[in-house]
Amino acid sequence: MKVQTKKDAGTAELLQSFFEATAPSIGDDFFQALVRHLAITLEVRQAFISEVTENPINAHTLAAWYDGQFIENIEYALPGTPCELVLTGEIIQIQKNFKKTYPGDKGLAGMQVESYLGVPLIGEGGKILGHVVAMDDKPMEEKYRDFSTFEVFAARATAELERRRTDQALRYRIEMEKLLAKISTNFINISPDQIDGGIENALCLIGKFSIVDRSYVFLFSEDEKTLTNTHEWCNEGIKSRISALQKISTNEISWMMEKLHRNEVIHIPYLNQLPSEAISLREYFVSQGIRSILEVPLISSNRLIGLLGFNTSRSEKEWSEDDIRVLRIAGEIFTNALERKRADTLLKKTQAQLLQSEKMASVGKLTAGIAHEINNPIGAVRSAVDSSVRGVENILKALKADQKSADIKSLQKTLQVLQSNIQIMAKAGERISDLVNHLKNFTGLDEAEYQKVKIHERIDSTLALIQYNLGRRIIVKKKYAKIPEVYCSANEINQVFMIVLTNSIQAIANEGTITIKTSQEDDLINIKISDTGKGIAPEKLNTIFDFNFTTKSSRIGIGMGLVSAYNIIQKHKGEMEIKSAVGKGTTVIITLPLINSVPRFGSSNFSQY
User: Fold this and answer.
1) With contact defined as beta carbons under 8 Å apart, do 532 and 469 qualify?
2) Are 463 and 609 found together in one domain?
3) In b/e form, how buried is each residue of 94-120, taking b as 16+ CB within 10 angstroms?
């Protein structure tokens, strides 16, 4: 379509031509059509349309026409240019002598600009969105007619720019909500030990998407006297500050604390917006190179536990209401994850305390059994020592009385008794030594926390320590297969065997049998411990690993033991299964992996919460 100039037609015809040309276009195509028609209609050499950026001292061109063709869009500085005044809401026209009016604007002066006309694009609520500019290398004429035509161009550009921004905001919100859904799903699928890593990953994803320089989490101490930077993501080229932001006194940020306690989002796009009572905060932000900041309170059960924050260092950033709403949702996701980690930490602490209590009770019983086992050989030693002392005394008396008349046969008999006593004491010492070695083996003294362990040796050590409880009424049958060593915590695996075998002993009221069978299946080791005890009712098997499970009628003395054993096996990436029938007995099946059996622990930065 041929574009008419102002010489060819009146204003109405010019506008009709413009609307017909741009009506089918949107976005970049529209902005290019606009500047082309504007330049041709007003018979000027240059025209462009710009949009304000997040940095208030810069503007970015959306389309630019120069000397009969489109040129590449640029971002340029506003200070010292007429555009700076236009973007405050003024219409600026310089009919001639541009260089004299703006001698500091080297950019436009270098393009041989003689005249300039700029109209602001004012959107809903009076917000400045950008501006439309026409420039020429000769003076402009017909000032008022140009204004009316120009303002129509500007109005159409404003409408398209608002449509474009609305569309961009909608797309941004949809993508951000997808991102938060992904983050939320990730937190659901990871274990509590992995939450710290999940938070850092989420900070990275949100930080990059929101185009900020740093995203972080602070947690308050229980008494809210201090706050600590526990998690952080920094954009490329931004220095980490997490190590310097530890246990900060909340008295230093009283202005922020008041807002956070009121569950308000702290939004500071420009530091000069901070009130006088926050002057120390502004000075700190300036010293750290921070230019904009947004912080979301983390609230759990009406208690302030921390904050989720974002800041920029390279330019100012203003977050929209939609941005803030979405980031509040992000704060809720982070709060839920931190609460889950906190609950897991408390649960593990409680379990550890209960396990310690049960271990102490087990140690008491174990000590009694070991004491009995040691007393038997010690008694034999004492008896042997007593008879040996008497034998030596008899020999000495006989030799002193009459060496020649000494009864050789009597002396030989006494020497035989002494020899027998030496053997008794040697065996007793060996028995005591074995017990001590088994006890040392069981407790894991002088051993690394994780190491290659011979499962059969661990079972045998446990059996040796509970031999007193087995007595003669329970027969232990071992069906050991040839299995490789397992990389695990020896001390914890010993605890599992002690718990399971003790339960089996307690389940057998009179005489019975415990069968221990081991086998290997691919990369798994199977340990089956079966007893001929009372068994467990089917309806109670489903809750046997519950925290408070116990039943004295069907299986004696289970208590917390199996829960602890189950948790240890789970920690080693293994499985524990129980099969039982009332009146027939119970089988505990333990499966341990040969590889990847070391648990993965996440970093713990949760001590402040």
Assistant:
1) no
2) yes
3) bbeebeeebeebeebeeeebbbbbbbb
The residue with tokens 């959107």 is: 123
CB atoms within 10 A of CB 265: 19
121 three-class SS: strand
Q: Token pair of 426, please? A: 């040697």
If 0-12 CB within 10 Å is exposed, 13-18 middle and 19+ buried, where does residue 198 land?
Answer: buried
- For residue 240, the 8-state DSSP code is P
Q: End of a domain among 319, 353, 375?
A: 319
Q: pLDDT tier at 471 (50, 70, 90 boundaries)? A: confident
Is residue 56 pLDDT above 70, yes or no? yes
Q: Chain-wide mean pLDDT for the chain?
A: 80
Q: Would you state the structure tokens that stand for residue 556, as one six-digit string?
A: 């004696």
In whole angstroms, give the CA distance from residue 492 to residue 489.
Answer: 5
What confidence category does residue 601 fall into, taking pLDDT thresholds of 50, 70 and 90?
very low
Residue 490 is encoded by which pair of tokens? 């020896």
The set of residues, in sequence order, having a beta carbon less than 8 Å from that of 223 and lying 6+ positions away, is none
CATH code assigned at 30: 3.30.450.40
CA distance 485 to 480: 13
Going by pLDDT thresholds of 50, 70 and 90, the confidence category of residue 437 is low
In terms of DSSP bridges, do strands 128-136 and 585-593 run parallel, antiparallel, or are they unpaired?
unpaired
* Domain span holding position 253: 190-319
pLDDT band at 48 (very low <50, low <70, confident <90, very high): very high
Bridge partners (DSSP) of residue 51 are: 60, 130
pLDDT at 513: 94
- How far is Cα 332 from Cα 346, in angstroms, rounded to an integer? 21
CB 215, CB 206: distance < 8 Å: yes
On whether residue 68 sits in a domain, the answer given is yes
pLDDT at 3 (0 to 100)? 46
Q: Any alpha helices (H) in 8-66, and if so which ranges? A: 11-22, 27-42
What is the token pair recorded at 598?
């070391």
Confidence of residue 153 (pLDDT cuts 50, 70, 90): confident
Q: Which of 319, 349, 371 is the last residue of a domain?
A: 319
Co-location of 293 and 261 in the same domain: yes
Among 503, 479, 507, smallest CA distance to 584 is for: 507
Which residue in 181, 165, 163 sits closest to 326, CA to CA?
181
Report the alpha-carbon distance of residue 354 to residue 193 in Å, rounded. 21
The reply to whether 103 and 248 lie within a common domain is no
Closest by alpha carbon to 439, among 458, 415, 413, 416? 458
- Does the pLDDT of residue 30 top 80, yes or no? yes
The H or E element containing residue 305 is strand 303-312
Phi-psi region of 270 (alpha: psi -120 to 50; beta: other; left: phi over 0): beta
Residue 247 has pLDDT above 50, yes or no: yes
The Cα 308–Cα 428 span in angstroms is 67
Q: Are residues 197 and 165 in the same domain?
A: no
Residues 157, 106 share a domain: yes
At 278, give phi and psi (nearest 5°).
Answer: -110, 25
**Structure letter (DSSP) for residue 118:** E
Q: What is the DSSP string of 126-167?
A: G-EEEEEEEEESS----HHHHHHHHHHHHHHHHHHHHHHHHH
In a domain, 561, yes or no: yes
Q: Is residue 240 part of a domain?
A: yes
Q: Is residue 368 part of a domain?
A: no
DSSP state of 232: E
